[in-house]
């Protein structure tokens, strides 16, 4: 699709964005409402505009160069931060519903080992709430929902169609997912934990946190999903479909990012990893996801349909595992931080290392301490153009470290 046509689709539009700032730098947009985590609008405004948490990022360098001293005035005119806890029936929601042309729902809890109740609230119920609000927006021409490429695959192999997920559908054909039953299960487990802690006269916070994390992983595995993130994202798609009616919806399902591994290596929390150097990883750069989403929205703007797009690289240009290993080590060799990451290609070796390096010392420590004290280019998303070695070394790793180290130092 022609880049001018894509850009033109967003000209003079009012857009509500949850969980993403990738659209903020696009010219011609009339107004952006940015939903952020904050107790009220004043705190949201302070977080986005005053503390530079959003507009101070490298993403806005071009706009800063274009507008110079007028940059902040331009941003304040275009961007309105909104507190995350907006209510569907509040006066603010009513005002938004009369102005919004496009909703981009990118908010999600992405932790693979998150508490089940927290992941359900954000990834499942949060998605349904966004869709319910979208139905109140009289001018709405597009709801873009950012999901994940793994909502239907589970651990299946082979060629799989890009279908809409149906209510109750799971990767295991003999299992039916009842979301209401899952919500009730969470409530019952939390009530039991609270009662138990009261009887034992102990704090329930840590016990509940551990139990909720284990419950989420167990329930995900029970239905065929590998973790609570993709499990609850799948629920979100089901709930969105159940309340959609005739809303125009585009679902974008990107594959994985590899930020966590790089950050973990940088912070010395991931000294080893299990994997096959000859294998491949289905990764995709974030800007390609944004470009694909914008093209998809422009292509289907105003259509009363639902359509799914996967944004992945594995079929055309997968990231080889050895490139990730070599690029990460090569970058840190020039910018020294650590010794080389250990890579095991067989699980028994990995397990033995973990036992010797961590489990046994921790058990000894626990015993002693216990005894002591208790478009072509503009909107490009073609993965064939990615030179993974150059991309990882010159772009991805430096960018990930800049953001993660900035957050750790309190600068972002």
Automatic annotation (TrEMBL):
Secretion signal: which residues?
Answer: none
The record ties this protein, via InterPro entries, to: FAR (IPR026055), FAR_NAD-bd (IPR013120), NAD(P)-bd_dom_sf (IPR036291)
Domain of life the protein comes from: Eukaryota
- EC numbers listed for it are 1.2.1.84
The yes or no answer to whether the keyword Lipid biosynthesis is present is yes
Catalytic activity annotated for this protein?
Answer: a long-chain fatty acyl-CoA + 2 NADPH + 2 H(+) = a long-chain primary fatty alcohol + 2 NADP(+) + CoA
A single GO BP term for this record reads: long-chain fatty-acyl-CoA metabolic process
Q: Family per UniProt?
A: Belongs to the fatty acyl-CoA reductase family.
State the name under which the record lists this protein. Fatty acyl-CoA reductase
**Species for this entry:** Panicum virgatum
């Amino acid at each position: 699709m022609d880049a001018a046509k894509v850009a033109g689709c967003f000209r003079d539009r009012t857009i509500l964005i949850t969980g993403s700032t990738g659209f903020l730098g696009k010219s011609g947009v009339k107004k952006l409402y940015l939903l952020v985590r904050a107790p009220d609008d004043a705190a949201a405004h302070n977080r986005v505009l005053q503390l530079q948490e959003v507009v101070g990022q490298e993403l806005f360098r071009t706009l800063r160069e274009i507008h110079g001293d007028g940059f902040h005035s331009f941003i304040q005119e275009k961007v309105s931060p909104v507190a995350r806890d907006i209510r569907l029936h509040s006066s603010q929601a009513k005002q938004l519903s009369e102005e919004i042309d496009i909703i981009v729902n990118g908010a999600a809890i992405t932790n693979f080992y998150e508490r089940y109740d927290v992941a359900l609230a954000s990834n499942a119920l949060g998605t349904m709430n966004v869709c319910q609000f979208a139905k109140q927006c009289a001018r709405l021409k597009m709801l873009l929902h950012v999901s994940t490429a793994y909502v239907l695959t589970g651990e299946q192999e082979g060629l799989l169609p890009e279908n809409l997920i149906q209510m109750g559908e799971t990767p295991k054909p003999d299992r039916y997912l009842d979301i209401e039953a899952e919500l009730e299960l969470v409530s019952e487990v939390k009530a039991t934990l609270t009662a138990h802690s009261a009887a034992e006269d102990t704090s329930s916070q840590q016990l509940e946190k551990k139990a909720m994390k284990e419950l989420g992983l167990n329930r995900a595995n029970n239905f065929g999903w590998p973790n609570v993130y993709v499990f609850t994202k799948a629920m979100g798609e089901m709930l969105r479909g159940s309340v959609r009616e005739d809303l125009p919806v585009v679902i974008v399902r990107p594959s994985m990012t590899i930020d966590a591994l790089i950050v973990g290596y940088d912070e010395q929390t991931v000294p080893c990893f299990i994997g096959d150097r000859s294998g491949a990883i289905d990764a995709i750069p974030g800007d390609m996801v944004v470009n694909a989403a914008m093209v998809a929205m422009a292509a289907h703007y105003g259509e009363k349909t639902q359509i799914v797009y996967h944004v992945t690289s594995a079929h055309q240009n997968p990231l080889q595992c050895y490139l990730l290993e070599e690029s990460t080590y090569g970058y840190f060799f020039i910018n020294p931080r650590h010794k080389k990451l250990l890579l095991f290609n067989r699980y028994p070796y990995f397990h033995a290392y973990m036992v010797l390096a961590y489990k046994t010392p921790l058990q000894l420590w626990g015993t002693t301490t216990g005894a002591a004290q208790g478009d072509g280019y503009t909107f490009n998303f073609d993965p064939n153009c990615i030179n993974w070695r150059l991309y990882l070394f010159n772009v991805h790793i430096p960018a990930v470290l800049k953001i993660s180290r900035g957050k750790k130092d309190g600068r972002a």
